[in-house]
Amino acid sequence: MNLGANIAERVLGDKPTSTTPKYQPRASGETMKALRWYGAQTVRVEEVPAPTITDPEDVVLRITGATVCGSDLHLYHKEIIQLQEGDILGHEFCGIVDEVGPAVKNVKVGDRVVSSFQVACGTCHFCKQGLTSMCDTTNNSNLQEKMYGSKIGGVFGYSHFVGGFAGGQAEYVRVPFGDNSLLKIPDDVPDEKALYLSDIIPTSYHAVLCANVQAGSVVAIWGLGPIGLFCAKWSLIQGASRVICVDPDQQRIDFAVQHLGVEGILADKSTDVVAKIREKIAIGPDCVIDAAGFRFTKGILHTVQRAVGLETDSSEILNEEIRAVRKFGTISLIADYAATTNGLNIGAIMEKGITLRGAGQCPVQKYWHDLLKKVQDGTFDPTFAITHRFRIEDTAAVYKMMDEHTDGIIKSFIQTKWSAPAAQGFPVLQSPTV
């Protein structure tokens, strides 16, 4: 390894980057278990080479906790472009520092840490503003730059459209720019809480801020996966007077009503969701959060258009939100939207004075020190949504369970051989039901 390698010498892919997405296998030949993608609805846990330090700023973790995110299902269904066979998935993980590069100063071997889901250099224009998800130097996808006009930052385990970095549904992971990407976990915070600071705790918080939720706001949330549930919890913490949740799964609605005290609307294909919302709040909600996204279609038109490639994203959910929100209300898009959509009701956006805000990928590092304190003091407790615990060997089955909404799964904790026993109050190890 040439410790003096400059950026130009580390360029991979279409665009220059400040670190390589590839990792260096260990000289010892040690292997690890990792979840790999091989095509639509085809993922497998396999033995692959374990990583060691590639660049001076790298940290290698022994993974002690991972999970499957609802957005991972887009990969599972091959709905995100630039996936390659054999990619290691997973963008939410915590662990114990196993190796550090010679330029790493803030963490040491043996530290318990949680990683941000994004790969961020810490020194570019956007990173210096705390907008780490928009890092200018870690994503080599020329295609994304052409599609969006500029690239967002790299993301662990989420295709070569966001850099092609190996993910953390594994026993080890290489973390570039470890000083910027890792948060130390206090002794009084178990992995089962710290893990979710990698993504869904800060992401849901960010979505609520982008929706301008304030004391007294009426909030409507489409989608009751983990992000939607956490958005509901944060909205209540922010002082929302009412939270109305929309989802096609009655079990998810019942779960939210039971654990959070929100109102629910079942969004089956025959339901006029806008009419149901207006029955509850005549002028419409002040704030809307889209935690559902592009995968969900109701009518035949968008189903066909997506199937034949005339659009990548359906506008049906968003058009419901545009019609439902009050005049001069705000819509926050935190669900994944990838490219193009047809039939967007742009006239209503303009005429109603709606603020439609793309929340982007959450800049995790901007929030996570404050949010760690809120987890520590009990202001935000993610425990209610952690329903299952599995072994890394079972991860492929977890994808299937989440995709099919079986066994009441909401959010899982995936353990490895490095994990501590389940903390008090959290699910114990179980076997998948598929």
Automatic annotation (TrEMBL):
The keyword Repeat does not apply. Belongs to the zinc-containing alcohol dehydrogenase family. Gene3D superfamilies: Medium-chain alcohol dehydrogenases, catalytic domain (3.90.180.10), NAD(P)-binding Rossmann-like Domain (3.40.50.720). Its cofactor is Zn(2+). Residues 56-187 form the Alcohol dehydrogenase-like N-terminal domain. Keywords: Metal-binding, Oxidoreductase, Zinc. Residues 226-293 form the Alcohol dehydrogenase-like C-terminal domain. InterPro entries: ADH-like_C, ADH-like_N, ADH_Zn_CS, GroES-like_sf, NAD(P)-bd_dom_sf. This is GroES-like protein. One of its GO terms (molecular function) is zinc ion binding. It comes from the Eukaryota.
